[in-house]
Amino acid sequence: MSFKEPLWTKDYILNIVNNFLLFIIFYMLMVYTTSFAISSFNASVSEAGLASGTFILGALVSRLFSGRYLDFVGRRKMLLFSACLYLLSTVSYHFIMNMMFLLVLRFVQGAAYGMMSTVIATEITSIIPKSRRGEGIGYFTLSITLGSAIGPFLGITLPKINPVYPLYFCDIIAVTIVIVSLATKVHAIVPGFRQRVEVKSLRLRTFIETTALPISFIGFLGAIGFASIMSFIGTYSEVIDLAFAGSIFFIVYSLACLVFRPLFGILLDRYGNHVVMFPVLFAMITGFMAIALADSSFTLLLGAVLVGTGYGSIPSAGQAIAVQKVKPNRFSLATSTLYMSLDAGSGVGPYLLGMIVPVYGFRSVYVCASLLAVVALIFYCGNIFFSRKKNA
After folding, report:
1. What is the pTM of this model?
2. Residue 77 included in any domain
3. What are the pLDDT digits (tens) for 205-227?
């Protein structure tokens, strides 16, 4: 009987809890700030959407530098600093007086979110046994799935009870994040001489991990398509008279993630990348196309299952793949490289694919998302071919 290295340690569980709470606030306020900006400042839909854009911009900037300086500043210091900044920015929502204040606040909160999620994801990668990395990251990223299911629900329902309830709820969660961060043991890695020399330069490899770029590019393409679902699925489902299916789309998506993320993590550990990535990419292609062709609730929700199986597994499988060829002292750069690509895709996706809607309609958006997944599959196959040719 083979011995399995322990996975469910106290610090592993605390990091999962912290990440879950982080993403509840992220998704709650993503929903809440749009309606808040429109109702409080008479902002247009595009101006309200800019609040999401500034948040993602803040996250991208902080990921770029937090991945570079994480082990120099110290993981624990950066975790506590970002947790306190997240708390401060969350409490500041009570004092917003104009649209400019909201945009600045969203940028600061995005920076805190990007910094903290980079620290947590890097620490998780470090404490999971190498033989169970895919499985461990699969379970860890379920915290994001649960946050994406619960956060929007609370962001929509709580204001109907009382407009300020979402803010008070976020305040309580943000305080809890600080408490959990204080209770979490964080591993310290002392940078070597080469790292100390490299960090003073402005070369590309000091900001990103180049070996993580292939999987990050695939994640970027997938994120563009998924962002179009996040932005347009509600309106699209009403246009095609499938409003009820649209209302439970993300519940079905989350259930698919809950099933397949841990399963693919175990398969990745045992059988390697290709056994996971080919089904994931095919599921993305067919999932986006099912949404594009949906003429019944069954077809639309089948798309939710397939996208949950496909794109829903990219963050976990992608993180495990991103760190496979790097030393522990570059885990932070590999992790931030992947998540920067996911953030970038989420940021540009609604804008790029949204330009198609006035001319070709909503269905064309998801056809394009499916074609981007085809490009990702071709790229993945090409990367395998050239890697084997290089190693031959």
Report:
1. 0.79
2. yes
3. 677 888 899 999 999 999 999 88
